[in-house]
DUF410 domain-containing protein
Amino acid sequence: MAQKGTGKTLEKLKSSVNDGKYYEAHQMYRTVARRYNKQEKYSNSIKLLHDGAVSLLEHKQSGSGSDLANYMMDTYLLANLPVDEQSLDRVIDILELYPSTEVGRKSFLSKTFSWTKKNGEYSEGDPELHDYVGTMFYQEGQFPLAEEHLLVGTDHSAELLGRLSYTWAQQDTNNGHGIYIARVVLQYIAMKSVRHATLAFNSFIETAKLSIQGESDFRYSPAGETVKVATYNDSWLNFTQMVLLTVQRDAAALFKELKSTYAPMYHQHAGFDDLIDDIGAAFFNIQKPRKQGNMMQDLMNSLFAGGGGPPAPRQVAGSPSLGLD
C-alpha cells in the first residue's frame, strides 16, 4: 500500500511539473518527503526527491531542482544509506542535469562526498564518483577542481590527468610544460600510487608528442640493473621520470642524489620540497624535517595564484650523472 501511495503521489507531482506549476510541485515534493523522513520511510523519501529533482532540472528549474537534490543527499546521510550502484546512479542522474552555473551544485557535491566517505569503503570517497566529477570539471575547463577529484579517482582518472596537465600547461606562456605533470606525478607517488603516477606520466608524454632529446642508461645502483630511458629537453620531465623509476627500487642513495641535483629547480616553487620529503619518508624511511604550513595549499598557491603560473623554473644545466650515462 505504501508503494502504491507513493506511486500516486509521484504521478500527481509529475503532472504539476508538466503543467508548469513548478512552485506548487516543489513545495509538495518537500512536504511529502519531510513526512516520510519523520516516519523513517527513507526509501520512499529518496525515490520522491530523486524524481522531483530530475523532473524540475529537466524543466530548467535549476534552483528548485537543486534544493530537492540537496534534500535527497541529506536523506542519504540521515538514513545511513549504503554506497552501491543504485544509490550512486541517482547521484549521476542529477549531476548530468545540473547546470554548471547553479550555485547549489557545490553543496550537492559536498554532501555527496561526505556520504560516500561515511557510508562507503574509501576514506577519500568513492573513486568512480571522483572520476565522474573530475571528468565533468575537466570538460568545463575547471582544471584545479578536476585535478582535486581525479587524483583520488581511477585508472581513467590518472590517464585523464596526464592530458589535463598538458592542456593546462598550454595556457601558461611563462613556464615549461613539465612542471604541470611533475606536480601530478609527485602527488601520486607521495600517496604511494606508483601505478597511477606511471599512467599519468605516460599519458602526458603521449598527449604532448614531445621530441626525445636522447636515450640514456639509468642505473638503480652502482652494481644494479640498467634500463634505457628517454631524456627530454625539460628538466622537470627528467626529474619526474627518475623519481618514478627510483621509488620502484631500493635506491635511497640515488634518491638523495636526485634531491641534491634538482633542489635548485624545485626549491623555487612552494610545496615541492614537502612532496619530495613525503616521498623520501614513504619509500626510503628518510625522516622528514619539521615544517609549518599546508603543503598542498602552498603548492597550488605558488603555481596558480592569479592564474599566471610560477616564475620560470631554473633549468638544471646538462644531464646529472645519477646513472644516466
Observations:
- DSSP finds 15 helices and two strands in the chain.
- The first strand starts at residue 214 and ends at 219.
- Residues 266 and 286 are 19 Å apart (CA to CA).
- Residues 1-121 form a domain with the Serine Threonine Protein Phosphatase 5, Tetratricopeptide repeat fold (CATH 1.25.40.10).
